[in-house]
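Appendix B, example 12.
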Amino acid sequence: MAKDMSLKRKETGAIGEKLAADYLRKHGYKIIQRNFRCREGEIDIIAQKSDCLVFVEVRTKRNTAFGTPEESVTFLKRAKLISLADAYLQAYDRQPLSWRIDVVAVELTPDNRISRLEHIENAVS
């Protein structure tokens, strides 16, 4: 049962990340990298819009009984995202004019359609 739940959660996350990337592209973002991994963890999407590098955390849920997707970005998760952004900037020696961390919150229907997608710019500072 636990293995099945974790597989389902991974699948839900992958669907949400694809929907988020599609949304960002439609809104003028260039996707630079998906699923950047390093010692500190993983950044779901790294994109660029104009001169701004955007680190995107995608949170996807099928059920909001325990809160919305964006509510699941805790204080500890925000600190980790800042650390991940720093690690990326150092690893790639990239010094963009500006950068920020956004959250894309995705809620799915049982048949994997979007019931809500919200892009929150500068969600973490």
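The CA atoms of residues 30 and 48 lie 5 Å apart. Residues 2-124 form a domain with the Trna Endonuclease; Chain: A, domain 1 fold (CATH 3.40.1350.10).
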